[in-house]
Design brief:
single chain; alpha+beta; Jelly Rolls; Arc Repressor Mutant, subunit A; 3 domains; four-stranded antiparallel beta sheet; DNA-binding; HTH_AraC
């Protein structure tokens, strides 16, 4: 099995819009099923070989095949069929930057995976073809950055400042802050903040906080695995603000559909390889 991964620092791409970026190339003996776990970012994938098959139903009844995939925020695992040969680029996009990139809020992508051509138009297919033809990852990422900057320049839309500040506050507290304290911080009532936040992001602040806390726990577990250690789940739970180990397992069952231990066993290769999120800044 041959694999190549090229991680790019967001500051070398479009840091105000991109949390993490990875170029990948792999050749497998046969297609492999893979779980895409929920995260506080919108997923954008451009493939240069075989298309990606994805959906949220484990039995595949909602599966779609696409060479350019745009996945919104979700609170259940996505199921992907990883093709035997795959080359491409995957971005984790900041939800509050989606409005500038797409001309619509991230809420419109909620719990869905699109063929991105339906949302971004024919220009995105031209970009995919151009990137596939370029010989190096550096050239590909340079061309991608130019495309993203041109899109944000065309429609420089921003969310309401209260929503942006609420996101920063949640990220700063790693999903462990009080919602009443958050509402006071942004000088809004809780009901009004919930409505504004859901309209922009697709999740209420409390739901995003829980997802943000899970993301930090998942990162800690993944870092331990990549370092060759067996994760101490009780310590991870304590460090990430969970009441106890069973509370962390409960979130894993919701977001991954399984326990942390089983997730590691099933996704070991992907856990070991996926380093792009390791030091990613989740704030705006």
């Amino acid at each position: 099995m041959a694999e190549q991964w090229r991680f790019v620092e967001p500051r070398n791409l479009v840091p105000e819009a991109v949390v993490s970026a990875v170029g990948y190339r792999s050749e497998l003996p046969e297609p492999v099923a893979h779980l895409g776990l929920p995260s506080p970012a919108v997923t954008f994938v451009l493939t240069f070989d075989e298309p990606v098959v994805s959906g949220f139903c484990e039995r595949g009844t909602d599966a779609r095949s696409a060479s350019i995939v745009l996945g919104g925020l979700h609170t259940r695992p996505a199921h992907l069929l990883q093709p035997r040969v795959q080359t491409g680029i995957q971005l984790a996009v900041r939800p509050l930057a989606v409005r500038a990139l797409l001309g619509a809020p991230a809420a419109e992508l909620r719990e869905q995976a699109f063929d991105a051509r339906e949302v971004l138009g024919p220009r995105i297919e031209l970009l995919r073809e151009r990137l596939a033809e370029l010989p190096t990852w550096s050239q590909r990422f340079t061309a991608l950055a130019e495309h993203l900057r041109s899109r944000t320049a065309e429609q420089p839309a921003s969310p309401r400042p209260e929503v942006a500040e609420a996101w920063r506050w949640i990220a700063w507290h790693r999903g462990n802050g009080s919602m009443s304290e958050l509402a006071r911080h942004v000088h809004l009532g809780e009901r009004q903040l919930n409505a504004l936040f859901k309209a922009e992001v697709g999740l209420a602040p409390k739901a995003l906080s829980r997802l943000m806390r899970f993301e930090h726990a998942r990162r800690r577990i993944a870092l331990a695995v990549r370092g060759g250690a067996r994760p101490d789940l009780s310590s991870v739970a304590h460090a990430c603000g969970y009441f106890d180990h069973s509370h962390l397992v409960r979130d894993f069952r919701q977001y991954a559909g399984t326990t942390p231990t089983t997730w590691i066993e099933r996704e070991l290769r992907n856990v070991q390889a996926a380093g792009a999120w390791a030091n990613a800044d989740l704030a705006v």
